[in-house]
Amino acid sequence: MRGIVFQGDRKVALVEVPDPVPGPGEVVIEMKASGMCGSDLHLYRRSTNAVAGPLIGGHEPCGVVVAVGSGVISPHARIGARVMVHHYYGCSGCEDCRSGWPQMCRTVPVKVYGIDSDGGHAPYMKVPANTLVPLDERLSFAAGAAISCGTGTAWGAFERMGVTGRDTIAIFGQGPVGLSATLLAKAQGARVIGLDIDESRRNTAKAFGADFVIDPREGHAVEAIKDLTGGRGATMALETAGAAAAGQDALGCVRPWGTVCLVGIGAEISFSLANLLRTQLRILTSWTMSIQAQKACADFVLERGIDLDALFTDRWRLDQAEEAYKKFDLQSGGKGVFLM
Questions:
Q1: For residues 138 and 302, is the Cβ–Cβ distance under 8 A?
Q2: 10 Å Cβ neighbour count for 137?
Q3: What are the distances in angstroms from CA 269 to CA 35, 135, 244, 278?
Q4: Which domain holds residue 180?
Q5: Looking at the 3D structure of the chain, how many domains does it have?
Q6: What CATH number is associated with residue 320?
Q7: Strands, sheet with 282-285, edge to edge from the N-terminal-most edge strand
Q8: 82 and 192, same domain (yes or no)
Q9: Is residue 43 a contact partner of residue 57, using CB atoms and an 8 Å limit?
Q10: What is the average pLDDT score of the chain?
């Protein structure tokens, strides 16, 4: 089979690799959808000197189980099962792994599919059976791919933050994670202020239910948020852009006793404790979601009738990888997905 490999310096290639065969405790999934995530761009843009070897990209996998190795007892691992994949794998035995947080494993180096181990941008993918999450037949494979990282990341942050219908939340960045957050926050009854430098993404946020949208390039994002909240500030802020300026504005736009959650990769944020100490802010980080939360997110999407397929503005074949990532690199528009 041929899979997509990030070669560095904004180059990708379809590389011939052997078809995967499941070992003990493993399954092979026939891929149906593999999402494009903003964190892919770190691999896409990195120097060729940082590329260790051919590794299939993609950490938002979704498909159908087609082969099962020995010793597999997972009820989700039957042939023909529709599944998502929790895209981390740890030791499977420590407290973190057993509680559904393999990305927090400290026993062994954590594998991240598409980064440390072959990912989903290929016709087939081999994974441990205990990383599978069932996908309801009422959800598309593309929706399952979104939940596997981007939408699941927004859900995981909201679990930590405790978003309710009483909140006004400022969501910095309206890319795939931020737009997912807008959809989920509105479904929970919150008032949403969406911020992005890209006009098309602001328009999409508005279409997805954002009560207000702001262009941070105008230079007064914090003041604008306070104006929209009677001078008090938002009760919560979620930073998804991975930009230092967005992180600083997130810290500055919430009212006393508010909550700020940082999920965007790549930003370095500094702040004065003297200025923030008496605000009683709760500052959180959030790293995607647990296995249980991935299932809970899918259940919520179904229960509230959220149209995750509306996130996708670009649907690609594997042989269009070069064109797909050139467009995605512009960071304008919605989410892309490879469909097989």
A1: yes
A2: 7
A3: 28, 37, 6, 19
A4: 153-285
A5: 2
A6: 3.90.180.10
A7: 212-214, 191-195, 168-172, 234-239, 254-262, 282-285
A8: no
A9: yes
A10: 95
